[in-house]
Hints:
The chain has one domain (about 15-160): Jelly Rolls (Sandwich), CATH 2.60.120. Helix content is about 35%, strand content about 25%. It is built from 4 helices and 8 strands. The strands form 2 sheets. Strands 1-8-3-6 form a 4-stranded antiparallel β-sheet. A 4-stranded antiparallel β-sheet has the order 2-7-4-5, with no helix packed on it. The protein is globular and about 45 Å long.
Amino acid sequence: MPTRKKREPTPPPDFDAQRFLDSTGVAARITYERSADLFSQGDPAASVIYIQQGSVKLSVVSETGKEAVVAVLMPGDFFGEGCLAGQPLRMSTATAVTPTTVLIVDKRTMLEMLHRQAAFSDRFIAHMVARNIRIEEDLVDQLFNSSEKRLARTLLLLARYGKHGTPQP
């Protein structure tokens, strides 16, 4: 039986999502200072956000007040995509870790772009698939690996953190 080589999904190399969003004029550009909330857990989910520069932390707070960071996102990352699947409210709080500039695209416009712009759709799907793979790996890691193995994996992920060439989930 042939073995499968693990392959990271990559976006089309000739497509620049930031340049595309800038050129269409469909996105609102907003700059946030460090520690500013872009949105809060429970806010209406009505847009998708693209990070131009800076970094954003996604965190959730339980009913008992316990906070968990679920992701730290970098330039080139999209987030808030749950609205495209009918998610009515934000599941997390998005906070600028550094001064951050984002492009915000409302849900209806984003859906239109995904239907009409194949290159943009390919880039967006590649990003979402890469993030989904990372989340599945995290889940398997939590379920089956010792704390030492989880720490080693986290350190390896941090060593690659923010490197360009593939979408960073």
